[in-house]
Amino acid sequence: MADRKQELEGLRDELIERFDRYKAHKEQRNGPLDKDVEDQSIEVVNDEVIEALQQEAEDELCQVMHALKRIEAGEGDDCERCGEPIDGRRLAALPYTTVCRDCADL
Ligand SMILES: [Zn+2]
After folding, report:
1. For residue 95, how far is its CA from the centre of ligand 1 (angstroms)?
2. pLDDT score at 72
3. DSSP 8-state symbol, 86
4. Considering the domain boundaries, does residue 63 fall inside one?
5. In a domain, 83, yes or no
6. CA dihedral 15, 17, 23, 27 (to 10 degrees)
7. Please, what is the angle between helix 37-72 and helix 2-28, to 10°?
8. Ligand 1 center to residue 71 CA distance, Å?
9. Domain coverage including residue 41
10. 20-59: per-residue pLDDT in tens?
11. If you measure from the C-alpha of residue 73 to the centroid of ligand 1, how many angstroms do you get, rounded to a whole number?
12. pLDDT, mean over the chain
């Protein structure tokens, strides 16, 4: 379980870094539009992709923080919905999950 916590903390730091990078990228883009039309349309697409990636990193970060909180409370290996222990292989594959396979399928 200590391993899973370490793994989640590493994941958390990585996600924060990723999130900051997307944010910095977007802020940099707010300069003057001095490029040709083709370039601009490519950048609009990039912005949408960055936006989606940033949202994804944020969602994942929330999930990781939530899982860490449950581990710290001593209930990290139990399903949040039904209270049954979560399968170890599932935790290994998805360290930030807080529900068992049955509940995740609902
Ligand atoms: Zn469950």
Report:
1. 15
2. 95
3. P
4. yes
5. no
6. -170
7. 150
8. 16
9. 2-76
10. 999 998 887 666 555 555 666 667 778 889 999 999 999 9
11. 18
12. 88
The answer as to whether 55 is a domain residue is: yes
Instruction: Tell me the CA–centroid distance for residue 12 and ligand 1, in Å.
Output: 24
What confidence tens digit (pLDDT) does each residue in 3-23 have? Answer: 899 999 999 999 999 999 999
State the distance from the centre of ligand 1 to the C-alpha of 77, rounded, in angstroms: 11
Given a contact cutoff of 8 angstroms between Cβ atoms, the answer to whether 7 and 56 are in contact is no
Q: What is the pLDDT at residue 33?
A: 57
CA of 91 to the centre of ligand 1 (A): 13
Structure tokens at 87: 């399968």
Distance from residue 96's CA to the centre of ligand 1 (Å)? 15
In a domain, 54, yes or no: yes
